[in-house]
Design a protein that fits this description.
The complex is a heterotrimer of chains A (256), B (822) and C (147).
Chain A lengths: L6 H11 L7 H4 L2 H22 L3 H21 L3 H26 L11 H23 L17 H8 L20 H21 L10 H6 L6 H28 L1
Helix pairs in contact in A: 3-4, 4-5
Chain B lengths: L2 H26 L8 H28 L19 H4 L33 E11 L2 E9 L1 H24 L7 E7 L5 E4 L3 H20 L3 H19 L6 H32 L7 E2 L5 E2 L2 H5 L12 H7 L1 H10 L4 H18 L3 H18 L8 H4 L5 H10 L1 H11 L6 H24 L3 H21 L3 H29 L15 H15 L2 E2 L3 E2 L1 H19 L5 H25 L6 H6 L5 H16 L10 H7 L9 E3 L6 E3 L8 H26 L6 H7 L1 H8 L4 H75 L4 H22 L1 H5 L1
Antiparallel strand pairs in B: 1-2, 3-4, 5-6, 7-8, 9-10
Chain C lengths: L1 H16 L11 H4 L10 H21 L3 H23 L1 H4 L8 H32 L13
The chains are: A mainly alpha (256), B mainly alpha (822), C mainly alpha (147).
Amino acid sequence: MTGTIRMDSIFTSVLLHLPAPTAPVVAAVDWHSVLFLLFAGLACGFAIAVVAAENVVRMALYLVFSLAATAGLFFLAGADFLGAMQLMIYVGGTLVLLVFGVMLTAQAPLVSIKPSASDRALAGIAGAALLAVLLAAAVSVDAWRKPGVGEIPSPTATPLGMALVGVRVDDPPAGAPLTGRSGYMLPFEIVSVHLLVVLVGAAYLARAKRRKTPRAIDVLASSDPPSQGAVLAAAVPAVRTTSGAGGKSALLGGGH
Amino acid sequence: MELPSVLPTLLGLAWLVPLASFVAILFAGPRMGHHGRGAARVATAAIVTSLVLSLAAMVGWLSQHPVRNAVHGGHAAAHGSADGGHGSDAHSSSDHVASGHDGGSHAADHDAGHAASPVAYSGDWYTLYEGGRLKLSIGWYIDALTVLMFVMITFIATCIHIYASDYMHDELHDVEDHEVHLAGGGHFHRPGRYPRFFQALSLFCFSMLGIVIAGNLAMVFIFWELVGICSWFLIGFYYERKSASNAANKAFIVNRIGDFGMLIGLMALWGALGTLNFADTTDRAGDSQPGLFSLVRPTVTEHAQWVPDGMVKFAAADRIAVIVRKHAGDPRAAVDEVEEQLDTWRGEGLGRWLLLVAGLGIFCGCVGKSAQFPLFVWLPDAMEGPTPVSALVHSATMVAAGVYLVGRFYPVLTPDALLVIAYVGAITLFISATIALVANDIKRVLAYSTVSQLGYMMLALGVGGWLAGLFHLVTHAFFKSLLFLCSGSVIHACHTNDMRKMGGLRRVMPWTAGTMLVGCLAIIGAGVPFVIGTSGYYSKDSILAQALLFSRTNPAHWILFYAVAGGAMLTAFYMFRLWFMTFAGEPRDHHVHEHAHESPPAMVYPLVALAVLAVIAGWTLPGGFSIANMIEQARPAGTGAEEAGGLLFNSFTIPAEHESHEGSVHVVATWTAFLTAAAGVFLAALMYVWKVISPSMVAAVFSPLTAFLVNRWYFDELYAFLFVKPILAVSRLASDTDKGVIDKIIDGIAWGARQVAGIDSWIDRNLIDGLVNATAATTWSAGLELRKLQTGHLRQYIMFIVLGTVALFVLASMLFRSTLAG
Amino acid sequence: MGESILSGTVFAAGISVGPAILPGIFPLAPLLAFNPFTEPVGVIHYMIVGAVMFTAGVVCMALKRNALGVLMGIELVLNGANINFIAFSSPYLRGDGAPTLGLDGQLIALFVILLAAAEAAVALAITLNFYNNHATVDIDRADDLKG
């Protein structure tokens, strides 16, 4: 082996390792892996697409796809209930929320606000560095690099539900102690209260506020500034009162 | 009711009422009526209450202890005034009558005889301190003398309060003091001080009565000082006048010298005897503890004076030490041997000196208070006070306190101490009488007369005339206060003290002239020999008789009699010189004469009342009562007998007083008194009425002597040279040392401290503050720089996070490569 | 074996590039030899997907000026993290009976989803408020608290 690196050699080696067309491909294909590859590609691809897109509506759409693909990954990993939740909460709930947000704020000039080129460059460098660090960390542990050939997990909905109400019915993982496993009653309750608080808080934060001065958005939205007449009309009672008092005092002054 | 319980109550109330008046005026004086006019009423009401209570006490006393042995042969005080009806039911001197009082009252009647204890009640109201055998208390010692003194003091004080309420009326409005010259040439204006005057007067009455009723020497000392301070207040009443404030300070300081001796006496007594009580007391255990009187004159010697055990032991301390060392292991044996040896030691005379020192120490205080030679210089100056004060404080009562204390303390005084007292009295009486001859200030003549009369009393006491001295004290109080009030009346009318500007006043001031003539006759002892006379006639004759007896008994001391006789003549001369110059003849200064007028009734009534008493105070009433007999009731046990002395002087004998009533002595004394007085009056009349001899010519002939007398024997100058100047020099030296040396050292230290502080300040400002400021500035600039990081750009923050994360990872991977790789 | 050749090549390339700044990256080489059609996937593959999504989220947060874009970045980040939890909880992916997080990982991921939903609601409310007050969703203009 030489100490030099040649780009063509990498491509060559990849091609070399593709299954030979003559081989009994079907029998050897691990459909699990293929599906993983599919979902992983979708998830990653649409995630990158979210980054790359400049229109916020498209970003939302790509995000839906990315998260849905992630749900597929969850299914592949045996987390059937969680995949369902991913679809229902994330794709069905959170994303709808985001889309609402997009729609509420999607004034024409705001749909796409572009970052500068230097920002892009910086973000790219930083992202690359982060990715490198994360990958390095991921592959640095030998045990994680082994291919998964473990048992196919059973459906998890029941154990999860039981765990949430405080009862563990799943088998402990191999090597884990049998005792001392707790249910998730308390976190469940905390999260439920948390959600309630968030619900109220969000409603409070986002409520339509009565304001004395016109909202900036209204002023911006209306093509013409508030008309002189409207302002006068608003001020009329005050003016009237003032003039009345003034007239009275003038009368008194005249009496002298 | 029992007398032992009633008397302390009555006299205690009489004593405390003026205190209440003082407190009331002190806090509410200026609000009492217009300009405090009510203060006089409050004070007068208080002293009248005291007088009534004292009279009640006297009536009570006389009802139980009637003065019956009233045979006043000629004018001799009866000795041994036995009250058989009472004495026979018999307390021996060691008996204690149980009564309702704390501490228990001691009453001991006296039998018919000199060697018996007089009737006296004693006890304590309040204990100030008690520890071991030592006890300080506020208590009473009441005998006939106490009761009599109470009546006398409250009576005179009442007269003077009434008199002063009018005399001091100038103080009711703003006063222009003509004797204070301001720098601008005007006179000094000030608000009136009417309440202040009566406030001090009330406090004085309280203090004086406190001395009289006191049951122990410590209490006497306390009130002794209180009357001193009252005297200071009253002499310095016009304190804006330089002369008045000087006189007040002089009186106070001179008295301190006497009190120093008194303190020595107190320490000698307390140190050696452990008690200051006059009478025997009962301690908590119920045992009788002997008082001073029974220690010095115990029953075992039939009340003859001896040196008390305590003083013998005190003097024999070295011998006791030898005995104690001999019986090292056996204290009981040592005590027994000491007790055995006591009489031997006493026989050797151990402790006699201590007793003498104690007596002379107490006498020192009396010298100061009673203005005896050599401390008499303050009294004439004390005339700067208002005249009622002179009458009450500086003639009748306070100055008599010294004489009273000598009389009260008489049993403890040794014959030698008495002889010293006699000589001091003789010197005093002679010096002051001569000065009075040439004085022109009417009050100063009376002041020197007072000093002279006090000398008489001291001399009388010193030569064994206990009764004569105290009797003269009482009579003198009456006629001297009368004389002073008369002089006050004259001053009130003439607005001057100078007799040379007076004359012929008898026509415009008949009452004053008449009462003053009575006072003059009383003081010279005028009377029809062997028939009747003024009060002075009785008291002075008994002094003369006792002095004559003493001189006969001890020919070496003949001078004492001649001093008394000469003094009597001088007294007569200067008193009538005073009267003639003031009231007789023609007016010398018409301006003064035209303005003169008789004083208002409130001033005249007391004069009349005192004049009456000045005449009759010596008389024996039909019932047998006389003041002299009443005093005789209180004669201390054992003091009527002959006593021999010889510690300081060649041996001499103090004769028993009753012997002076014997005809051979008595007749001579009476004629001597009469003739000397008549001679003095005659001489005065020659010079100032008939003008046969010109006073100015006499003065010219004896000019050196006159100058000597006018300048008061140069005593003030002598004291200034001997004491005042050296003290001033020493104080100036001390002041210079203070300013020149000590102040310089302190200034130097301060300067050094200031320099160090300067360095410290520089370090503080430049180094420490610089450090702190630099820290602050660095923090500030760092904050400014770091502020720039807070751009408010969310995306930048995220970039920071990312870069930070990456950097952390890189760092961690470099540091922990093996771990990550593993 | 081609695999060994490839790894050796990359290894050599790593050495030749320079000092081993990121030594952990070299074991990446075998992954490039992964045959998706025949070999079973492992934890590492999920981790790679998670890392990519995480990075995409972070870059999204750092890049987007639209507040909603930032929110989407946050969702991506959370999702990337969730993938890791799922991977480590899966007994299949770990293989060989290696210890897994088991059901705990899934539960944690579930909570993350729930909290993400809550966070999205609150963040959206804040965004709307911001929009109401500033008439924009440009977070570059949200610098009222800058130092």
